[in-house]
């Protein structure tokens, strides 16, 4: 068990710390005007980095199926290495900026700094205890985890017959994107390479995005009033449904984290138009769509809201809408397009809804 847990911790560090740092460095390199504060930069990167891993595996299982686990993991590592190479010249700048920011906060707001640092430490320890001690037992997450396992064994995504696994009799009825279950696929590829077992990383996803939501709330409200920020964060954590999601694992923290990030980016890009914010808005909206069909619908709504309220010229607005639309498609909505064109789940569901509407009108 110790070896399995150690293998998981290494994977957790690689994806959630190292890859997050690389994504932050890449975005920092693109952010010439420094429109993102350091906390926002790291929060966005922390959400995006693990999702990029899943998205890469998703496309690889479609385009280059039936390869070894080592191949898929190596491609993911190669992509992040490439991002690191692009941003390498700014590595010292980002490091120095981060250290300076932390030192200033420690000096000017010592009590808040100590409280947040202590709270994060306690959270990390509690989070790991939960991951190790509590198995996946709830229906939705159990279904997603099983589908992730099936994909890791098939090493292929085929929309024509992807839902049924004849070896186990498992039938995946989900309407939503693949990113969340592929966290489990990615972990099993890692297990194959390291000769380890377990689904610790898949269990940890809920907690990772849970704390991102809390920190996002704190970050934005502290800009207005620190007392209100901490009251709101405490109220959120103590809300039974939100607190319980940390214990029982669920996709909701994953999709809601991207909703919060996408919405905040929308408000920013409307207030202060910037191409980097447009790119991040599209990417985050794509991952929100990938997480859940509700996220797909919300991505469409936020896309329309940008078109309605953006203060840019008509030309720039049209260009940005095209960029956002393409990014939402590439980073998530493409699943729904593929399923409608080549699969049968969404077509069957839409036919059923139409039939129910007809019956209700009789």
How would you describe this structure to a colleague?
- The protein has 362 residues and is an all-alpha fold.
- The chain has two domains: 1-216, no CATH class; 251-362, no CATH class.
- Helices cover 81% and strands 1% of the residues.
- The protein has helices at 2-30, 38-63, 69-87, 91-108, 110-133, 139-154, 179-194, 200-222, 226-238, 240-248, 252-271, 275-291, 293-309, 314-342, 345-361; strands spanning 164-165, 170-171.
- The protein has a two-stranded antiparallel sheet.
- Helix 11 (252-271) runs antiparallel to helix 12 (275-291).
- The radius of gyration is 21 Å and the shape is globular.
- The model has no long low-confidence stretch (mean pLDDT 91).
